Each structure stands twice: as structure tokens, then as C-alpha cells.
Amino acid sequence: MAGRPGTVVVGAGILGCLVAREILATDSRASVTVIDRDLIGSGASRRSAGLHFPRGANPAVRALTTESQRYYADLAARRPDLPIHPIGMTVVARESTEAKVRRTYLPEANLRRVTRVPDGVALPKGTVAWAGDGCQYADVPTLTQALAAELRPTVEFLEGVTVTGVSSSVDGVRLSLSTGPPLIAERVVLAPGPWLAARAWRDLVAPLGARVKKIVALHIEQAPTEQDGAIVFQEEDAFLLPYRRRGHWLFSYTCSEWDVDPDTVEPGVNPAHLAEARELLRRYAPRLADRCVSGRVFCDAYAPDAVPLVRALTDDSRLVFAGAANGSGYRLAPAVAAETVRLLSTQAPTPTSRKDTK
């Protein structure tokens, strides 16, 4: 590494990599280092469903969704090789909630009532369906690695390096590292995903009030067709996603197990998860219920008010937290990254050398 880095991003998931990308988009000569305890995109990003739908439960999240949707559309247009795939969308909810549904979804969704629903989907009495636009899904770990590869000529990546301590002073932010010598940077962004309680920063992050919740997504052993789209069960905060690249469907539902630890959470599906998922599937897609036999389990960070957190952890804004996206890390990452860089700009760094400076 040449010289003292201007900004260090801790966490090389989709958000951390987009923060690095946004810093360079703002200042092409910026010096950026990204550190991760594991490999790029190997945390929550590796297990992400990667679904983007144009909605937000409140005005703040809708604004973030709008910004992120435009970002991904532009990225996919300029880099058609990236694994970002447009997909159709059907939203299912009680007819009596139509006004709320229309408030929740962006105008770009162009929701329209439909009388025919995808094959295998049932509409219980009192429920209706809308078709919508603006939905896409991505292979998030592959996308994250591709973005990191694009950044590597100008960004220093330190994989398999654990940050063991964080302290801030007028001289900069000091990071103690598992590899030995510390790293001192002008600014540091903590984008740790669900690792809120890591010893190095747990006391700094605790006042934010974010919590970690288990996320469960079940694999349904039925091959989707090219015509299949995502099916969103709005009130249950659940969805069916045709995972074409893997040859099966994915069913994500809301698991209510809180305050779990990403280092100790059991990675496998248990009978309770299967029972909860099948109960919902029998209501809306009964033919798929018995094919729901396996899946993935991890966790994510959630903000107290359901709006992702971008907060200075020190008075001088040298140390910033970004994350707690409430299970929508991929969907909202571009907007959260942009907000993070805007906050960093309130603390102008001193000139530093970048990676390729000799």
C-alpha cells in the first residue's frame, strides 16, 4: 500500500464496494482501501436473494429505492455483462389494502389490476393481484466481485484481514489489524453488515439501536420457466423468486428471530422454518408447499425506524456507519452509498496518495 489512505471502507459486501465506487465517482484521485474479514461478497451478500422491487414502506425508503433503481438501470445499460436481470412482478394483497399498496410502490411500478395470476398461485377470498414493472434480481456475490475487480486498479483490497480496534483522533482514524501494523486513515466507513457486535466497534455502534434478525429463504424444488416472474405477498412481506440460474424457486418469508449473531447462527434450515414457510405457501401457492424442502439461513441488521442508517460515529464525521438496511441491502445499496459519501464530504480529507502513486 502506497501512502496513507484517504478513506478506508470496512466491509467488502455490495454496500462497501459501492461506497468505494461512489467515492471514486466523486473524486477520481481519491485514495481508498477496502478491508474485509473474509473474501469479497462472502457475508450477507453471498446469501442475498438479490431481488429489487420498486417499493418502500415509508417516504424515506421510497426515495432510496428510486435512487437505487435508477443507478442499477444505468449500471446494467453500461455493463450488460453484469448479472442483473429484469423480471416481471405480481403483487398479491387484500383488496381492502389497495390504497396502501399504491402508496407503497413507486409510480414507476405502474401497478395495474389483473384477473389472471401466474400458474400455481391462488388468490384467497378478498385478495387481488396487480402486475408491476421495475423489478429485477441479481446474483449479488458475483456482482459484488465484478464491481470489486473493476475497482482493483485504483482501490486497495485487504481480504481476510480483521479489524481488531478502532479509535479516532485529530490525526485520523486508527485501525488495529489482525495482520500486525495498524492502519491510519483520514476517514473510515464501517459497512459491517450484520456484524454489529464485532469487538472493534460494538460500543461505537450500539447507540444507533440497530438489531440483528435471522433471515430465512427456502428453496423450492421446481424449475421455473423463462416466463415466470417474482410474486410478492405484500402484507406478509414474503416473495417467490424464480431462481433461473440455479434451476429452482426461492421463497423468502419473514422470520421473527431477533438478536442473533452472524458468527454463531445455525446456517441450516430447521423444522420450524419449513413449517412457517409451508403455512404461507399452502395459502397462496399450495402446489409448491411440499416441494419446499431446503434453503438458506443467515441474518441482517435492522434499523429502529426501518430506514437504513448512515450516521457519523464521531463529532468530526471521520468515522461513519452505513448499513442496517432491514434485509434490503442489495436493493438500497446504491442510494445508501451515495448518502454515505455525502456525509463524508462534510469532513474534507487532507491530500493523500492513491494506490497507483509511485
Automatic annotation (TrEMBL):
InterPro entries: FAD-dep_OxRdtase, FAD/NAD-bd_sf. The keyword Oxidoreductase applies. Residues 8-342 form the FAD dependent oxidoreductase domain. GO terms for molecular function: oxidoreductase activity. Keywords: Oxidoreductase. It comes from the Bacteria. It holds the Pfam family DAO. This is FAD dependent oxidoreductase. It comes from Salinispora arenicola (strain CNS-205).
